[in-house]
Amino acid sequence: MRKDTVSHAKKDAPDENSGHKRSYTIPCSTNFRNQVLALAESRGVNAADLARSVILTVSEQLISSVLDPGEPKPSDRETVTLKSGPDKGKPWRRKPRLQVRLPDGYNIVLLRKALRVALALDSGALRMTLEPSHRPTREMQRLRSAMDVLLGDSLPNAVRTKDEAQFVLGFPPNSRPTVAEIKARYRQLATVHHPDSETGDTARMALLNQAMSFMRAYEKY
């Protein structure tokens, strides 16, 4: 894939808030699947999050222009054990695949291409530049002020304890959030705090990353 620069361009996509989601089976090579899963794990997300992020921020025209990684070759198969039916317990050779849950209406080829774009962005083969905001400065100041009020005080130093990590992530000190809840909260707050966001805050993003690293070590996940 050639090295290129793309502009931030949100596209029309299935309604993410509709609540109607389905499971997509995306046939792909073992190597492609492993790369996608490794990238998702390194970012604390899943393959569906990677595909969704690309589809919502990169133009459909660019995604469609990317070469489809394609289905696996006939020799590329994985062995699984059947869990139900008359052949339960027997081994079965099948195509490698990725399973993702997303709103209904996506095309399998588009999803596969979107994941390839995610890999290209991560490797640097493709670069994304964000277009400058056209919102009035006064509106952004009001939004930033509102965010500061809602988010409360920031810690003055690095995250040093579990309670501080949970405070940064928005959980009460004595709560016991699940791993899934912690990851979901991190993704939500990262969207707000990332320096590339219009509400970005470098200091809060740094604390958020520290808190997530602390919780990963504490929860051992």
Brief sketch in words of this structure:
The protein is an alpha+beta fold.
Description:
This protein has eight helices and six strands. It is of the alpha+beta class. It folds into two domains: 126 residues, no CATH class; 83 residues, Helix Hairpins, CATH 1.10.287. The two termini are 33 Å apart. The strands form three sheets. A two-stranded parallel sheet has the order 1-6. Helices cover 46% and strands 14% of the residues. The chain is globular.
Report the structural category: alpha+beta
How would you write the strand order of the largest sheet? Answer: 1-6
Low-pLDDT sequence parts: 1-12
CA-atom Rg in angstroms:
20 Å
**Main sheet record:** 2 strands, parallel
* Chain-averaged pLDDT: 78
Number of structurally distinct domains: 2
Number of H- or I-type helical stretches:
8
SSE ordering: EEHHHEEEHEHHHH
How much strand? Answer: 5-15%
What's the topology here?
Blueprint (H helix, E strand, L loop, with lengths): L3 E4 L13 E7 L2 H13 L4 H11 L2 H6 L12 E4 L9 E4 L2 E7 L4 H16 L2 E4 L7 H15 L10 H7 L10 H15 L8 H18 L2
Parallel strand pairs: 1-6
Antiparallel strand pairs: 2-5, 3-4
Helix pairs in contact: 1-4, 2-4, 6-8, 7-8
